[in-house]
Amino acid sequence: MQATTKNDSTNAGSSSVNVSVYKTSYASSPPTQLAEASIFDLTASPATFTYNTGSTKIKNEEIPSVDSQESAFEHVLERLQSSGSLLEISDKRNTICVCHCVVHGGDYPEAHVIDENTLHHLQDLTELAPLHDASALAIVRACMKVLPKAKNIAYFDSSFHASMPDAMRTY
């Protein structure tokens, strides 16, 4: 039997949170998506929840108690754990890695493991993308709190732009 792990991918917008959950094996096979969940309208109550595990689908369920990226992430995590539809997502201890989409990484040229020092450095950069980076870092802090054993990794939009040829990134 091959060992498997569960990895989450998060993307926090200014008024939304999107989470995708993947199962990976240590073999070279590509990851398999287990679930995806989104919460929209965080700034216009009530927020709405959409969820899909293949066998369970919820669309636009109103959740008035959720009003921030952190509470949205915690709601998604709780719903994933309590769904009962997939064993792999029923225990948060199965999450070994959470990948975060962060708009601006400053002087980080590529993906970076987030520790307390990295988190403080990224916090100092939020003025460069205030609507998105502040939201993304709220999710990182929530992950550090509720998934303390999971490795958090930031993937930066700015890394993509930095890798473009000068003629394409300058207009």
Describe the secondary structure blueprint for this structure.
Layout: E1 4-12, E2 17-25, E3 32-40, E4 47-52, E5 57-63, H1 69-82, E6 95-102, E7 112-113, H2 116-124, H3 130-146, E8 151-156, H4 157-162, H5 166-169
Parallel strand pairs: 1-6, 6-8
Antiparallel strand pairs: 1-2, 2-3, 3-4, 4-5, 7-8
Helix pairs in contact: 1-3
Q: How would you sum up the global shape? A: globular
Fraction of helical residues:
25-40%
Distance between the termini: 53 Å
Arithmetic mean of pLDDT: 84
Order of helices and strands: EEEEEHEEHHEHH
Give the class from helix and strand content and strand pairing. Answer: alpha+beta
How many runs of DSSP E, i.e. beta strands? 8
Quick gist of this model?
With 171 residues, this protein is an alpha+beta fold.
Architecture overview:
It is a single chain. By secondary structure, the chain is α+β, with helices and mostly antiparallel strands. It contains five helices and eight strands, in the order βββββαββααβαα. Helices cover 29% and strands 33% of the residues. α1 (69-82) crosses α3. The longest helix has 17 residues, at 130-146.
Features:
alpha+beta; single chain; 8-stranded mixed β-sheet; 5 helices; 171 residues
